[in-house]
Amino acid sequence: MVETIGRDGVVRMLRGAVEKIRAGHETLSKLDSVIGDGDHGTTMVRAMGLVEKTVTACAAPDLQGLLHDVGWAVMGVDGGAAGPLLGSLLMGMAEGVGGRQQLDAAGLAAVFEAGLAQVRTYTQAQVGDKTMLDALVPAVEALRAAAQAGQGVAAAMARAADAAERGAAATTDLQARFGRARNLGERSRGFADPGATSVSLIFRGFADALAPPC
Amino acid sequence: MAMKKFVNKPEDLVKELLEGYALAFPQKVKLAGSNLVVRARPKAAGKVGVVTLGGSGHEPALSGFVGEGMLDISVAGEIFAAPGPPRVLEALKMADRGAGVLFIVLNHAGDVMSAKVVMEMVKKQDLAVKMMLTHEDIAGGPRNKPDNRRGLVGCVPVMKVAGAAAEAGKSLDQCLAIAERMSNNMATLAVAMGPATHPSTGQALFTLADDEMEIGLGQHGEPGTGSMKIKTADATADAMLGRLLGDLQVKKGEQLLVLLNGAGATTLMELFIVYRRAAQVLKEKGIVLAAGAVDEFLTVQEMAGFQMCIVRMDKELLELWNAPCDTPYLTVR
Fold it and tell me: How many helices (DSSP H) and strands (DSSP E) are in chain B?
């Protein structure tokens, strides 16, 4: 059981997310072609390219510096709301981590909570509005619940990924109330939200990267 | 169906279009920093900078209006997608000539999100930046709920008067007040007859039957007030102008700017025929057509349709509208 993770572990998590998004980008674009303009997959692939590049090049020796640099890079993706939202998640996590270099499950939950709080300063969207928050909020809550139940980092992250997937799947029946898809009204039902699906892929990537080899 | 567009690799679209644009107008604009479109000659020190951001694929908007008397910098994003905060912050710093920067943002989810993040950073870095939103699409909701109203072509006349005020040496607060006054006296409505194709995904942004049009459709095919059988130019002008005049509650004797913006596939011929009718209607109602413009300002690829924008003008706004400017796609001498 992985009890704590440090900079190396977070780098592995980020690389795991990159891998999952790259594998799933066609699904994301297909979903976006129903309620958006079909470019969410390519936007996310560009964002993950920036994550990979930054993770490789980042000179900051500490967790805060790493998360800040990756967040700032994702902000610069030039792909509408996705960059600012994911970027602010990471930059909020950077603020939340402070000077800590090792995180246990509770610490990791706190860092994600700080990231979520930062996201909330830029969007009024709530769970149920068919946005990325439909996956992000349950994932962070599951992380906290698993930590409180005494689970280790890897197990807690697996619970978070499960919750994100359930949250993303549940957006299928919802009507969009934020972003460009809001204008579609009733026509936005019937397909999962691309942003929420991206977040579920990212969390699955985090979880897989921390999972012990079997 | 294969996409019929002259493009190279989809991922290079924006880079290549900005390069070509700068090469086409070297006397007026150039690329600087992280692919920012800036004036060829920077504004004199001590004057307010004017900056905007927005997705690409809407040419000549928004970079077409960078130049003396209008914008100092345009930050172009990806196709139909806002640029991220880092490049916008870079632009705001670069545009500050010591008198602060007016930051004009169209009300679209991605643009506003990026702008909000930037404004948080502006606060931390103690930069003198004032942001204003344009939201004049009357199809989006009632006038008292501006957040639901999208920013359409009305951003262009706002940039024109704000840019003229900045060039005249007015303060940041004065420039903001002028831009807000213009924005508050503005109403726009769009009509579509056929969809645009996303130039990198090849996907049509919406569908309309061959014999149908839709009033109120947004820039990217966001639904309007329902499709209807195609009407004549006069009937379309009457329907749209009637709603715009009602929304702004324009009274007899007031002065209006009327701007028609072709969406891409609709010809100037059609736009002139519509404009002619709009002018007739205003004359019948005793409303003064004080200024006008008919052109492609903000397109959506090969979308068929146009936007009709009206602005209630006063003496100062008219002077600023008529003040000289020298940009690639709007020139006043």
Answer: 8, 14
Q: Which of B108, B135, B198, B220 is catalytic?
A: B220
Strand-by-strand arrangement of the B49-56 sheet: B29-32, B36-39, B73-79, B49-56, B101-106, B129-134
Beta bridge partners of B294: B260
- B55/A contact by beta carbon, under 8 A: yes
Stronger pLDDT, A38 or B80, i.e. the higher one: B80
- Tell me the pLDDT tens digit for each residue of B202-224: 888 888 889 999 998 776 767 67
Write out the two tokens for A184: 């579609």
What class does CATH assign to A7-210?
Answer: mainly alpha
Amino acid of residue A99: G
B145 part of contact set with chain A, CB < 8 Å: no
Residue B118 has pLDDT above 80, yes or no: yes
**Domains of chain B: residue spans and CATH:** 10-184 (3.40.50.10440), 186-322 (3.30.1180.20)
Could you give the CA distance from residue B110 to residue B123 in angstroms, rounded to a whole number?
20
What pLDDT, in 10s, does the model give residues A136-181? 999 999 999 999 999 999 999 999 999 999 999 999 999 998 877 7
Rounded to the nearest angstrom, the minimum Cα separation between A176 and chain B is 13
Q: Which residues of A touch B (CB under 8 A)?
A: 29, 33, 37-39, 42-43, 72, 74-81, 83-85, 87-88, 121-123, 178-180, 182-185, 187
So what's the ipTM on this one? Answer: 0.86
Q: Residues of A152-183 as b/e, b for ≥16 C-beta within 10 angstroms? A: bbbbbbbbbbbbbbebbebbeebbbbbbbbbb
CA B293 to centroid of chain Cα atoms: 13
DSSP single-letter state for residue A171:
G
Q: In this structure, which amino acid lies at residue A146?
A: A
Residue B89 has pLDDT above 60, yes or no: yes
For B210, residues 6+ apart whose C-beta sits below 8 A from its C-beta are: none
Q: Which two tokens stand for residue B199?
A: 């130039």
Could you confirm whether B58 is annotated as catalytic? yes
B220 touches chain A (CB under 8 A): yes
B113 and A85 within 8 Å at the Cβ level: the answer is: yes
| Mean pLDDT of the B99-120 span | 95
Of B201 and A210, the one with more pLDDT: A210
Chosen for mutation from A54, A78, A180 (greatest number of chain B CBs closer than 10 Å) is A78
Active site residue B220: yes
